Predict the structure.
Amino acid sequence: MGKHVLVIEDEPNIIEAISFILSRDGWRVDSHSNGHDAVEVVLAKAPDLVILDVMLPGRSGYEILTDLRARPETARLPVLMLTARGQSKDRELAERLGASRFMTKPFSNADVLEALRELVPA
Amino acid sequence: MTATLNLLVAVCLGYVAFLFLVAFAAERAALRGQGGWLRSPLVYTLSLSIYCTAWTFYGAVGYAARSGLEFLTIYLGPTLVMIGWWWGLRKLVRIGRTQRVTSVADLISSRYGKSTLLAVFVTLIAVIGTTPYIALQLQSVTASFASIAQADPNAAPLEDTRQIALSVAVGLALFTILFGTRNLDANERHHGVVMAIAVEAVVKLFALMAVGVFVVWGIGGGPAQTLARIDASQMGQWQVDGMRWGGLTFLSAAAFLTLPRMFQVLVVENEDEQHLRTASWAFPLYLLLISLFVVPIAVVGLEIMPAGSNPDQFVLTVPLAQGQDTLAMLSFLGGFSSATSMVIVAAIALATMVSNHIVMPIWLNLTGGGAVMSGDVRNVVITARRLSIAGVLALGYVYYQMSGGGAALAAIGLVSFAGVAQFLPALLGGILWRGATRAGALAGLSTGFVLWVWCMLLPSFGADVVIPGTVLAEGPWGMGWLRPQALFGIAGLDPTVHAVLWSMLFNTGGFVIASLLTFPSPLERLQGAQFVNVFQHSARPQNWAGGTAQSEDLIVMAQRILGPAQAQALFQDEAQRQGLAGYLPEPTPDFLARLERELSGSVGAATAHAMVGQIMGAATVSVEDLLAVADETAQMMEYSSQLETKSEELARTARQLRAANEKLTQISVQKDAFLSQISHELRTPMTSIRAFSEILRDGGGLGSQAQSKYAGIIHDEAIRLTRLLDDLLDLSVLENGQVNLNIRTGILSAVIDHAVAATGAGHGLLKLHRRRADEEVTLETDLDRLAQVFINLIANAQKYCDAAEPELTIAVQARDGRLLVDFIDNGPGIPRQVQSVVFEKFSRVSDQKAGGAGLGLAICREIMARLDGTIAYLPGQSGAAFRVTLPLSQRMAAQ
């Protein structure tokens, strides 16, 4: 059984694309599409890694990340942040808040897979 | 020992030196503040004795020898005034002090609105009226010299008595200049001089009483025998002429108040009102004592002196004839004292008037000098005083020369009395009657003066000296009714009574009538109130009644501080309140308090109080100084208000800059947010496109179904990108106002039809409700742009209305010249908190992704603004509701 990844993203097409790529690579993929209850979903599903979009309906990815880092059970959980806003200050903010990795959209599928393998060694 | 002329001169010089020392000591004491004894009521009373001049000393005996007891009238007048009119004197003194009056001319001028004309006129009358009097003193001193010199058989006969008169005049001028103009006192007080004349008063009283005692006990053989001699003399047979007695008593009473020298000692030199209380009994006592031996001396003199002796010199010649040289010398000193004290004070008083009211105004006019009291001006004032003193004495000497020195002393004295008595109506009227006016004072004074000159002064020189004897006897140009001593044909009156009667009658009449006929100026009214009500005014707790014309000064000051409009409004309002509308208000305590409050708003309470106090109180700072301060303050205030205005402007500019900056910052933030938004909106579809295209490229066992699905996603996202770019460009064009409108005429229903067709709403889930009849409205607008708006609204309903059976109602109505098109669906509507932002770029209402970039409504708003219409959210409907408003074209309105 592969590693468990949770994709929190509101664009259905992007979820579909990521799901396809990761499944093909042997990951078990779950997805969630709004920010309101994202932290609870993470806690409930206890994934090995989270791919987190920044602009989510309800709560922003930054807020969710902050909450996750504040909780002992998720403080060290690998989080890959994805954002469509490619400014350097977004990257800085994400790193300061404790994102494990930060990637801007659009991304290369290979890059995502590589990053995931680094974050969660098999 | 026989008194020689040289000894006489030495005695005179020694006596003058003694007086000089007395005066000097008094001045020093006053300067050191040790002059308490200088201000005793006794000194004041004694100084009043300058009323008793050489005329009294020598002339009274002569008067008694010629006319019996009539000489008493000269003492009766002042006695009646001192005892019977104490209240009036006190009022006069109070006015003099509160108004800081420097002379009788100043008082009258000040009372009648500070009239320069009146001041000059009164000064001239005073000079003309006093000149004979000064001549009289010169004459009596000269005569006394001659009497003593002639008594010396060894002495050469006196060649030229005029030489003596000249020396005396020059000597007196020097003494007066030395002591009368040593310094300039704002109140014109002269402690040294007053002390000297008090000493002289003692000397002359002592001398006359010594002679009297010698006559009664040394010659007459005791009081009883002397009385018997008096009974036996002609004295008992003199008929008392009631009219003359009354007239002369009145005249001496009037002169007591109006003589410039009397006014000087009575009012100007007065240190304390309370001194009047003592003087009111002490001065009559002095007069009684000095007149006690007049009759005995006259009677004894007539008895023992050879026939034809001048009775005016009995005081001197009787002791001489009896070989009493020392007594004669004492008597001479008494006479000398009488003459010198009178001349000194009269000269000071006249010099004050002449320099203050004639010389200084002319000098200030010539030099154009303002009211600046510099040392330079002080020198001018002192020089003017000195020249005036010399001039007054020169005039007296000239009169003495002209009158030949022959006329009886008493006659000359009466001429002077009647002259200055002309001031009486204006003076008394001024302090008793508020209705008295400047015109009245001028009218009374001028008519009285003319009549006095015509009926008394000119005839006093004797026939053919100034006016020909024929005029005296028959009137000018034979007009008998104008005869100087029988005006209007009323002959048979005593010439003195005649002149006094007519001049005073016309003077008073003119004064009253002209006062009634004319209206006082505001300043006259104000001054009138100050003078007549001096006790009420000066009894105020804060003692604010000093200075002249305070209200005028106050308004001038207030104008400089508050500005003319505000100050005038304040004064007018106060005058209205006091019932003096149109005049200056009276400076009542209430008003002063109010003024202070107003002023303190500008200059602070302490300064305001000080300023008002300075004007109202006994000021040590001149009004001019104050006004200078006020001017400076006003300038500073103006400057500071300019600064304030400037700093306000700067603050406003700063505010505007700050606002602009904030706006720029906001715009910058908005721009950043917009770019960020655009980036997000562009990157999102591109992410899908890239991810799926990479999946397709990599191949790797992808089913054909998946392949076509992913290709479909790529296609849709590409279209989404294109639409987004189209919207952005569209919005940019609309916002920049670069859009070209294609205005056409069409029917509303057709536009809606087009929009419905474009969205495919007619065939989908959404059910449309329309009333076609309402839609048959002709429009004249850009039909394509309007359709774009409708398409947006219908598409939104399609996207967001999640009712089980979604419906959209399109309602059309015309109202107030505008066309309203409402789009109302039956969905959940838009939450209240986001209703206000739905038209902003990139605003999304729901969390659900509906594919739009959030630019549709923003574009709609821009389009409607270009079409002179509006689009707004309609709250309170069943679902989401938007109202599009369009102007009805003129043509449509006509339908």
